[in-house]
Specification:
The protein has about 425 residues and is of the alpha+beta class. Helices cover about 45% and strands about 15% of the residues. The chain has 16 helices and ten strands. Strand 1 and strand 2 form a beta hairpin.
Length: about 425
């Protein structure tokens, strides 16, 4: 299938959508468009399908399998191995296969790659270069005889007929392509060899796009995990009130503000922004702090609205326009007992007591919850005073109230309540 401008349908459009979703500007999308516009050879249905699958794979890793299957068919080769970001001996990174079974894949990763023979086979190639090995043809010798004997023959394959180095960076990370002939099959045709050479610029660009998107996904996930640790609910929305970033607590408190009557998150955000503008008396609220009373709760929620940019005139953009911080004023965020242990050298029992006192519990209430006597918690409290440098319970509570890190660390998986990690 081909679009009106002669470019393959699907691939560049999908990359464009993915690039916009992750905040990439024109550089990545331009690589995909330029690759197709400048490098495309006499478009036929097979080539169009191959390129579309390639750029679909660049945008979404789930499409690599279809690309490898089409590549194997287009090159008339029985099997394909594509290594992305291989870091050298013992670390194959991401390896993708077509035409070999699961046992071969496991053995290849655990045994063959540890010896690094295929990586060494591409060590003398320049990025983008393709080596066509006649030793991979039936009756003309073999490359890496041990590898062929142990692994390839179980799949009725010969040694690689094609080895291509896609990319290599300064950190020693390499991306490679290997295509294998079927034993007893025909020779690699000149037209197939030429097609692989024409494909290489596309493959280089697609791997670069895929790696950049993968980096952005990892950064996004790491930032999301960090934001989820904040006691307040956090929402970052665009000019059309659509959430770009929303923590789980942010979604919960947003729905509490609107009594879940909003049709979608964007409508709930819009309601809060309208309330902020009304309070400020201006179209752009700037920075507004207000209290919002949920319909079925007596406790108000504190909402801080900060305008980042005025995108109301361009609702189609996805640039951040507004940040909202929603806080339950009556709520009490618990302290991580494990963090208290590490900060002041408390015992697990002392840390649990300190965490309960920080929530406003009295000594008898804490003793009842911990199932110990009041005498025991009084003795523990005395030890806590000595370790924290305090002398009174009120002073200790003020100290714990300033311990923001212990609230952020609460329930972090690698730091359990006893400070020894998960069970």
């Amino acid at each position: 299938m081909q679009s009106n401008n002669g470019l393959p349908a699907g691939g560049p459009a999908r990359v464009n959508l993915q690039a916009r979703a992750f905040g990439i500007r024109g550089d990545v999308t331009a690589m995909a468009t330029t690759a197709i516009a400048d490098q495309l050879w006499e478009p036929g249905s097979e080539e169009i399908d191959l390129l579309t699958a390639l750029y679909d794979a660049a945008a979404g890793a789930e499409h690599w399998g279809e690309f490898l299957r089409l590549l194997s068919a287009a090159a008339a080769q029985a099997a394909v191995i594509l290594a992305l970001r291989a870091a050298g001996c013992g670390d194959p990174g991401t390896v993708l296969y077509a035409g070999v079974d699961a046992e071969f894949q496991r053995s290849y990763r655990e045994s063959q790659w540890a010896r690094n023979s295929l990586l060494a086979d591409a060590s003398e190639l320049a990025p983008g270069a393709v080596r066509f090995s006649r030793a991979g043809m039936p009756g003309e010798g073999t490359l890496q005889a041990d590898f062929e004997a142990r692994w390839l023959r179980s799949q009725q394959l010969c040694a690689p007929a094609i080895t291509a180095l896609i990319a290599r960076d300064d950190d020693g990370v390499t991306s490679m392509l290997h295509l294998f002939s079927r034993c007893g099959g025909g020779r690699l045709g000149d037209d197939h060899a030429a097609a692989i050479c024409r494909l290489m610029p596309h493959l280089q660009r697609a791997v670069l796009i895929a790696n950049q998107l993968a980096d952005l996904r990892r950064e996004r996930d790491a930032l999301q995990q960090a934001l989820e640790r904040c006691p307040a609910g956090i929402i970052i929305a665009d000019g059309a009130c659509r959430p770009i970033v929303m923590t789980g607590r942010g979604r919960t408190l947003l729905r509490a503000c609107t009594d879940e009557s909003a049709v979608c998150d964007a409508e709930g955000i819009a309601r809060l922004l309208r309330a902020a503008r009304k309070r400020r008396g201006a179209k752009n609220a700037g920075q507004v702090a207000m209290q919002v009373s949920p319909p079925h709760s007596a406790a108000p929620l504190e909402v801080l609205v900060e305008t980042l940019a005025d995108n109301s005139s361009s609702p189609t953009t996805r640039d951040p326009a507004t940040m909202l911080f929603i806080h339950d004023a009556q709520g009490h965020e618990p302290l991580a007992a494990g963090a208290l242990q590490q900060l002041w050298g408390l015992t697990p029992a002392e840390a649990r007591l300190a965490a309960l006192l920080a929530l406003g519990q009295s000594l008898p209430e804490a003793a009842a919850q911990l199932a110990v006597s009041v005498h025991t918690v009084r003795r523990q409290l005395k030890d806590i005073f000595g370790k924290t440098g305090t002398r009174r319970q009120a002073t200790l509570i003020r100290l714990l109230a300033r311990c923001r890190g212990a609230r952020i660390l609460c329930d972090v998986p690698h730091l359990g309540h006893d400070g020894r990690g998960p069970p």
